[in-house]
Amino acid sequence: MSAAATLNVKKEPVDLMDIQDQLLKVVESHPNSITTQEIFDKLTSFSSQNVIDGLNALLKKNKLQVRKKANDELVYVLNTTSVVNNLKGADSEEKLVLQIIEEAGNKGIWNKIVHEKSKITIKQLDKILKNLEAKKLIKRVSSVAAARKKIYMLYDLVPDISLTGGSWYSEQRFDSEYVDLINACCLRILQQKVESCEASKNLLDPMAYHNSTFMSSSEILKVLTESNVSKITLSLNDIETLLETLVFDGKVQKRVVSSSGANSSSSSSQQPQQVTLYRTIPPIIQPTGLMRVPCGHCPVMNDCEVGGVISPETCVYMDEWLNF
Ligand code: SF4
Hints:
Low-confidence stretches: 1-12, 264-269
Mean pLDDT: 81
Distance between the termini: 18 Å
Strand order of the largest sheet: 1-3-2
Number of domains: 4
CATH topology of the largest domain: Arc Repressor Mutant, subunit A
Radius of gyration: 25 Å
Oligomer: single chain
Shape: flat
Largest sheet: 3 strands, antiparallel
Bound molecules: iron/sulfur cluster
Strand content: 5-15%
Order of helices and strands: HHEHHEEHEHHEEHEEHHEHHEEH
């Protein structure tokens, strides 16, 4: 919780691989092509220079193609040239397996399905898969839904969120501590916004004061990114998912407005778009003492016993709760 309150921490250098992953996701979600400006608008948590560096790195790796439109505007598309066509010195079975894996895209494919589709024996298939892995044409990935399944995809692909579980999963496990931390940070950012507006409160115009206490998700993400609280790069979607939980918890209220009426600086397009704004609200009912008992979310609860190394008699959290 202390990390949530202290947002001014040392800035770390931007991870170029992380930007490239985000760029691939953005370009992949626009199969017809995407302009540079549209990419900037989607990746507001990175500087323009970082995005340009990431695009250049992906063009160099042949993962993206750049095209010029009739109005001379540059657009980007994924380089979908089949790896099977470029595979040299491989036998027909290897090509068949690679083709099946390629068709599965970034959702990957279970080795048993590859076996069923290719009709290659399990023993021979294992050999082919190992061979393709050694050539760095495919990779084995884990799924949060089935950690033991052997799932394969092309080496250069970024695994789909259905496999990784998204930003809130770490090593195939839901990272509840990390979620709590970012949740607390979002709440703190919104509280700081209200506090700063409170200081300059215009009593003659209460509506203007009320409206100024809202923040858009992109503004919250910007503050979070600049504070370097998060160990990974969070997307706007990640933050909005988290903010939604705060809304359901009754800690935050939200409203949807036209971008022309929002205090957001993220939208640069001409057409007004809908923007969701958030504002912290005081709880209507304070939680009861029983609801605040620390044991309910204690990570060492199973090791805690009367007279033990970890015990209620020596527990500082229990003391704090009893003295509340
Ligand atoms: S008494 Fe303290 S250590 Fe034991 S379960 Fe409760 S919070 Fe955890």
